[in-house]
Write a structure and sequence with these properties.
The chain has 374 residues and is α/β, with parallel strands linked by helices. The chain has 2 domains: 5-108, Response regulator (Rossmann fold, 3-Layer(aba) Sandwich); 210-374, 2-Layer Sandwich (Heat Shock Protein 90), CATH 3.30.565. 50% of the residues lie in helices and 18% in strands. It is built from 10 helices and 12 strands. The strands form 3 sheets. It has a 5-stranded parallel β-sheet with strand order 2-1-3-4-5, sandwiched between helices. Strands 7-9-10-12-11 form a 5-stranded mixed β-sheet. Strands 6-8 form a two-stranded antiparallel ribbon. α6 (178-206) packs parallel to α9, α7 (218-233) crosses α8 (254-270) and α8 (254-270) packs antiparallel against α9 (332-342). The chain starts with a strand and ends with a helix.
Length: 374
């Protein structure tokens, strides 16, 4: 394991040398800077594991250095311990408020400084291990998803191809019967459309590029999503929209948004069962999520059908999982969650106390958007 790199910043040479000798004896690599600008230049070049930063320096003091580093994504996570002659509570609170993790007061006690440095380096190591674990977990989930998709693709495409070949045979054997040919050709077309749909869904699932987002009004996005769903079911299905957020501007990918909400409405429509005729009420409700981090809103898609089969509840977001026993079941919920996460959001399913299911879309918003409708 590489030795930790510590940047010591102080305009007093003697202070830098004292800390440098102490820390090097303990096996650390020590970088030195004697001004705020020099410190920033070294951080840009070296990305140290920890910074010991003097507060009182000419031209650019330690507080300004800390603020600049905290303002950048690539340096925000580097812990900073302030070194100061000021021992007031107000001074310490000021430094902690802008991002410092600890304080050391002058005159410097080398043993105390070493102990504080070791504590922060342990935190750094823990955070890196956690980030590495999260990365490996994400990779494992991705590999598991791809494996499930591959298996599901093979099964569903083989089944659909078998159906298509069967209808081709029927068309050939009934070539002298135009009505039968037309009927079988229609079924063949339907099987091919389902094959094309699965391929499109697969492209969406494994696409690596971030979807480009554009600003759109929430009310318009909801209306277009409902219209797409109604077109897909070939039915003027009634969908109640409760949108207290009104014309909130949402930065989203229009097609992805419509596909997500459309897939959830389709899921709710099918929850009523094939044998149920008449009305199949569906409702879309929006709400703010104050205090969420990152800032998000919720879009609830509610149905009052038969609910989720307990046997498949824990696997609802896996590819090709469905309570329907039909050939060519797609990846609606898998695609929806994947697309939302690529936008910085998420998706969850819950039972409604009155029966039925609610799918909750967590969609990110700009912080300024929340202020606009607060």
């Amino acid at each position: 394991m590489a030795a930790p790199r510590i940047l010591v910043v102080d305009d007093q040479v003697i202070n830098v040398q004292l800390l440098k000798r102490k820390l090097e004896r303990e096996g650390h690599i020590v970088l030195s800077a004697y001004s705020g600008q020099e410190a920033i230049d070294i951080v840009n070049r070296e990305k140290p594991d920890l910074i010991l930063l003097d507060v009182m320096m000419p031209e650019m003091d330690g507080l300004e250095v800390c603020q600049r580093l905290q303002a950048r994504e690539d340096t925000r996570s580097i812990p900073i311990i302030f070194i100061t002659a000021r021992n007031s509570k107000e001074g310490k609170l000021e430094g902690l408020a802008i991002g410092a993790v600890d304080y050391i007061t002058k005159p410097i006690d080398l043993d105390e400084t070493s102990a504080r440095v070791q504590t922060q380096l342990r935190f750094v190591a823990i955070n890196r291990e956690r980030a590495d674990l999260q990365r490996r977990l994400t990779e494992a989930r991705h590999a598991a998803t791809i494996g499930a998709v591959t298996q599901g693709i093979a099964l569903n495409l083989n089944n659909l191809l078998g159906v298509a070949i069967g209808y081709v045979d029927l068309i050939q054997s009934t070539a002298d019967k135009p009505d039968s040919v037309r009927r079988n050709a229609k079924q063949l077309e339907s099987a091919i459309e389902r094959i094309v749909s699965i391929v499109k869904q697969l492209n969406s699932l494994v696409g690596k590029s971030q979807q480009k987002t554009t600003p759109r009004r929430l009310d318009e996005l909801l209306q277009s999503s409902v219209a797409r769903f109604q077109q897909a079911v070939h039915h003027p299905a009634g969908v109640e929209i409760e949108n207290p957020l009104g014309d909130l501007i949402l930065h989203s990918h229009v097609e992805v948004f419509e596909n997500i909400v459309g897939a959830l409405l389709m899921n709710g429509w099918e929850a009523y069962g094939d044998g149920e005729e008449g009305e199949r009420p569906l409702r879309v409700v929006t709400e703010d999520l104050p205090g969420s981090s990152p800032p998000r809103i919720a879009i609830r898609v509610e149905d009052f059908g038969n609910g989720v089969d307990p046997k498949i509840r824990d696997h609802m977001f896996e590819p090709f999982v469905s309570s329907k026993h039909t050939v060519g079941v797609g990846m609606g919920l898998t695609i929806a969650r994947h697309a939302l996460r690529s936008l910085g959001g998420d998706l969850e399913l819950q039972d409604l106390p009155t029966g039925g299911t609610v799918a909750i879309v967590h969609h990110p918003i700009n912080p300024s958007a929340r202020r606009a409708f607060a």
